[in-house]
């Protein structure tokens, strides 16, 4: 496994974690906890965190 130091052009991209998308997700609490852990670690290393919210009219 590589470290962040080996990847200077690294960013964490978090996609579609808005309530309407993850409300009924399998193991929702665990998924959100894992995302929070990744975001915290990325920020502590100075890695940019990019949040992407995809939406369409038919989405909740």
Secondary structure category: alpha+beta
Count of DSSP E strands?
Answer: 2
Mean pLDDT: 82
Strand residues, percent:
5-15%
Poorly predicted sequence stretches spanning 5 or more consecutive residues? none
Strand order of the largest sheet: 1-2
Q: How would a crystallographer describe the biggest sheet?
A: 2 strands, parallel
Order of helices and strands: EHHE
Taken from the alpha-carbon principal axes, the silhouette is globular
Distance between the termini: 38 Å
Domain count: the total is 1
Number of helices: 2
> Which assembly state applies to the chains in this document?
single chain
Radius of gyration: 14 Å
The amount of helix comes to: 25-40%
Helices and strands, with pairings:
Blueprint: E1 12-15, H1 19-22, H2 28-44, E2 49-52
Parallel strand pairs: 1-2
Could you give a quick summary of the protein structure above?
With 60 residues, the protein is α+β, with helices and mostly antiparallel strands. The protein contains two helices and two strands. It has one domain (4-52).
Task: Please describe what this structure looks like.
The chain is of the alpha+beta class and 60 residues long. Helix content is 35%, strand content 13%. The protein has 2 helices and 2 strands, in the order βααβ. It has a two-stranded parallel sheet. The protein starts with 11 loop residues before the first strand and ends in an 8-residue tail after the last strand.
